[in-house]
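Please check this protein record:
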Amino acid sequence: MILLVAACFIGIATGLVLPKVSKPLAQMTGQYVATGPVAQALATLPVDDHPSTRGYDRDSFAYNTTDDDGDGCTIRDDILKRDMTAVRYKAPSGCQVKTGALQEPYTGKSIRFVRGKQTSAAVQIDHVVALENAWQSGASQWDAATKQRYGNDAYNLLAVDGPANQQKGSASAAYWLPANRRFRCSYVARQVGVKQKYNLTVTTSEKQAISKVLRTCPAQQIPKQ
């Protein structure tokens, strides 16, 4: 009886662990099979397993250097204003955010934002599909205007925890997901939405990682633009 129980335990443990360490086995057991509207959109994205960052130029995206809505502020302040609560401005009639409260999506913690040389970096603006990831997914072929539009597109921007943003860097979903598991479905859905909007590619590993998240939330919708 003891041997039988031990054998059952080993069998169950093997079934749970092996798909996590073996991609072929994970494919066989359906770990990367997802359904729902985001999964359908993901299936339409072209796959490129040989991306290149050759010639990557972050400055070509002109992030935070334009005032597209004409309010006198760049996109950073626009996103801070959109994503935070209890916002106060440097001037009564201005748009430069002085303080605010952020319910941060990547970690799930609350952050008190205070503008200043030593404090502003606590909240950073993340490109959900990173600029370098976009470059190697097709953006390298864009003209200057399209790159600038992408670099300052509010649809692809979120106010987030500074250290979490630094940890993510330019990683795709294959290499980085938010520590806050409750936000992962929304996160990958927005990545799919951005890549669909700009006709960008995904790698097989990236597609599998996104699909694995989407298996837990088949009703997830792509965020509206």
Residues 113 and 155 are 22 Å apart (CA to CA). The longest strand covers residues 97-103. Residues 4-8, 10-14 have pLDDT under 50 and may be disordered.
